[in-house]
Amino acid sequence: MGGIKHDSDKLRMDLIPVEALEELARVLTYGAAKYAENNWQEVEAKRYEAALLRHYALYKKGETHDSESDILHLSHMLANVAFLLYKQINSI
Fold first, then answer.
1. What gap in Å lies between CA 92 and CA 87, rounded to an integer?
2. Nearest-angstrom CA–CA distance, 89 and 75
3. Dist CA 83 CA 41 (whole Å)
4. How many CA atoms lie within 13 A of 29 on its CB side?
């Protein structure tokens, strides 16, 4: 017998693919080691727009992994979009 939980109007976080979360964490872990934890919050949005486009261009040319980090270009793109989304939501 199941209990009652009124959560039908809440976000379904369980629908996010765990692989996407892991890849986002991979990029953030790399960035924290290279720069500092949460350093991305101090960088202006246009820098992430440019990085997003660079990774996208290389991805479109058929390159799968970033040559410096050996992390997928799509993973870097996901991180850049997350940064831009955070900045827009928080009006930074």
1. 5
2. 21
3. 8
4. 8
Per-residue pLDDT tens digits for 14-26: 999 999 999 999 9
Alpha-carbon distance of 1 to 11, in angstroms, equals 24
> Which phi and psi (to 5°) does residue 71 adopt?
-105, 145
Q: Which residue has the tokens 């820098």?
A: 47
From residue 26, alpha-carbon distances to 7, 40, 73 in Å are 30, 14, 12
Residue environment code for 49-82, b if the CB has 16+ CB neighbours within 10 A, otherwise e: eebbeebeebbeeeeeebeeeebbbebbbbbbee
pLDDT tens digit string along 40-91?
999 999 999 999 999 999 999 999 999 999 999 999 999 999 999 999 999 8
Question: What is the phi-psi region of residue 91: left when phi exceeds 0, alpha when psi lies from -120 to 50, beta otherwise?
Answer: left
- The answer to whether the CB of 77 falls within 8 A of the CB of 59 is yes
